[in-house]
Amino acid sequence: MAKILVTGAAGFIGFHTAKKLLDRGDEVVGLDNINAYYQVSLKHDRLKQLEGRDGFQFEKVSLEDRDAMSGVFNTHRFDSVIHLAAQAGVRYSLENPQAYVDANLVGFVNILEACRHNNVGHLAYASSSSVYGANKNKPFRVTDRVDHPVSLYAASKKANELMAHTYSHLFGLPTTGLRFFTVYGPWGRPDMAMWLFTEAILKGELINVFNHGKMRRDFTYVDDIVEGVIRVNDNVPQPNPNEDPLDDATTAAPYRIYNIGNNQPVELMHMIEVLENAIGRTANKNMMDIQPGDVPETFADIDALQRDVGFKPDTPVETGIQRFVDWYKSYHKIG
């Protein structure tokens, strides 16, 4: 049994990760500041599924509060840290860039410093497929250069990877970055397409279809993401003495980067069709131009993940969407 800090425990992926760790018998400290980026009621409802369970403790703390973060690490001794808290969202980074600096840059330094000074055995943290920006190579490989982000959110996640490597190199802190690809599923985020589309279709309202539907996304079901996160957390990276200067994903430091994606991009219009079938209604579509900061396609190469932890996401989008719709109707008490 390990003692693990899960940041963002009231968030979508953090909640599912904490739940699975508890299910297997680990001790979990969940940390979250319950901010109002989306309705806090959903975050509290997620937490209710965790609170009261054996082995779970909750700390309401903001990442950027250095003293409070130090207090958490002084109170507890963690075997590892799974850092999933962040200011999320590509489009919101155009409206409120300071939130990304506070949570994703200042907050990440606080996590790194706390891990360094408290001898944490491994820091696994959320990066994002957004770091690939306008990369033309498909599928996206962790060995690709990712120096041209097209949103501040993506830039903050690339910065996290660089900062983590510095701490791995200077202080021997094992770190692993996980580039998530379009995560969806029960208890998901209300600002993401799956929730927005489901809500609008059920209400008979228009859905905004960006780039006139000419988008492809590597939709990845949340259970697959969590399985990958936990396997990676358990697999502490070792230094690679045969460092390849052209490979950013593994170096002479105890540092790794992995993609976690379904490895099967889905056309946006097909996703909408599957969603319509699951709901039993036809969507009213508002075809729009692509949004600033968006990319037309994401596609994860997961060879490194399969090689090192023996896992490949495999939930078909038809299965995952039906599960999400069933949960959404149950949560909102829709018959």
Q: In angstroms, what is the radius of gyration?
A: 19 Å
* Element-by-element helix/strand order: EHEHEHEHHEHEEHEEEHEEHEHH
Counting DSSP E segments of at least 2 residues, the number of strands comes to 13
**Shape by Cα distribution:** globular
Helix content: 40-55%
Biggest β-sheet: strands ordered side by side in the sheet: 3-2-1-4-5-6-11
Structural class: alpha/beta
Question: Which regions contain 5 or more consecutive residues with pLDDT less than 50?
Answer: none
> Terminal Cα separation, in Å?
41 Å
- Please summarize the sheet with the most strands: 7 strands, parallel
Range of strand content: 15-25%
Average pLDDT figure: 93
Give a description of the structure:
It contains eleven helices and 13 strands. The protein has helices spanning 12-23, 40-48, 66-75, 92-95, 97-117, 152-171, 193-203, 222-234, 268-279, 303-309, 317-331, and strands at residues 3-7, 27-32, 56-60, 80-83, 123-128, 175-180, 183-184, 206-209, 216-217, 220-221, 255-260, 266-267, 284-287. The strands form four sheets. Strands 3-2-1-4-5-6-11 form a seven-stranded parallel sheet, sandwiched between helices. It has a two-stranded parallel ribbon with strand order 7-10. Strands 8-13 form a two-stranded parallel sheet. Helix 1 (12-23) crosses helix 8, helix 7 (193-203) crosses helix 9 (268-279) and helix 9 (268-279) packs across helix 11. The chain starts with a strand and ends with a helix.
